[in-house]
Design a protein that fits this description.
The structure is a single chain. With 225 residues, this protein is an alpha/beta fold. It contains seven helices and five strands. The chain has one domain: Rossmann fold, CATH 3.40.50. The protein has a five-stranded parallel beta sheet, with helices on both faces.
């Protein structure tokens, strides 16, 4: 039987690349997309496209509404910051940070993994291009892996659980290059925090980082359709 892995799939550029990486490493991929009350729920449709195109063995959806608590421009009535393409992205923890989001998402991925006998979780966090989020840093991933191995039956009795973050130290341009080498069609993805009618806004931090990276790679962003 193929080794199984649960891949958190948002429908964005990073998670699509991670799914392709997991497949290239021989994993049978079980994709998990979480509806956490995000305002930009067009990404859910993108996740379906990506999972189908990149050959996920299964694609599960789970709900855990963080909109109940708000506190983020992605889950509350707070404006998503916008800027022009030539403006630098701000530093510090931005208002698009969702309280405890990756902790919640990885916990759901862990539950899914344990239910199917998988010992590997993949997440597309990255600390290079946009390190303002505390739950996108190596210390968080390492801490969650330790937690997983004392909090689950399979981690305690069967085999150690591993949390993979293969994009952690890559620039956004290098992530794109890696994905292209694995056949990822980035036209299927959506990375925008504030899309309109399924189209990226072009001005939020996610859009500007993505556009800049494609420019560095030397190609137009196929997601700007």
């Amino acid at each position: 039987m193929s080794k199984r892995a649960v891949v958190l799939l948002s429908g964005g550029l990073d998670s699509a690349t991670v799914l392709a990486i997991a497949r290239s490493e021989g994993y049978e991929v079980y994709a998990l997309t979480v509806e956490y009350g995000q305002r930009h729920d067009d990404e859910l449709a993108a996740a379906r496209r990506v999972a189908k195109r990149l050959g996920a063995a299964a694609h599960q959806f789970a709900s855990a509404s963080l909109r109940t608590f708000g506190g983020s421009a992605l889950t509350d009535d707070i404006d998503v910051p916008k800027g022009s393409a030539d403006e630098p992205v701000g530093s510090g923890i931005p208002v698009t940070y969702v309280p405890a989001r990756n902790t919640v998402l990885l916990s759901l991925a862990l539950a899914y993994a344990e239910s199917i006998g998988a010992h590997d979780l993949f997440i597309g966090v990255n600390a290079v291009d946009y390190s303002g989020y505390p739950d996108c840093r190596p210390a968080f991933v390492e801490a969650f892996e330790r937690l997983a191995n004392v909090a689950t039956k399979i981690g305690v009795e069967v085999e150690a659980i591993r949390v993979h973050a293969p994009l952690m130290e890559l620039s956004k341009a290098d992530i794109i290059r890696r994905g292209l080498s694995l056949g990822v069609d980035y036209g299927l993805t959506l990375s925008c925090y504030d899309p309109v009618g399924g189209r990226p806004c072009g001005g939020c931090d996610a859009c500007r980082i993505r556009l800049s990276a494609f420019a560095e790679v030397g190609m137009p962003d196929p997601g700007q359709r």
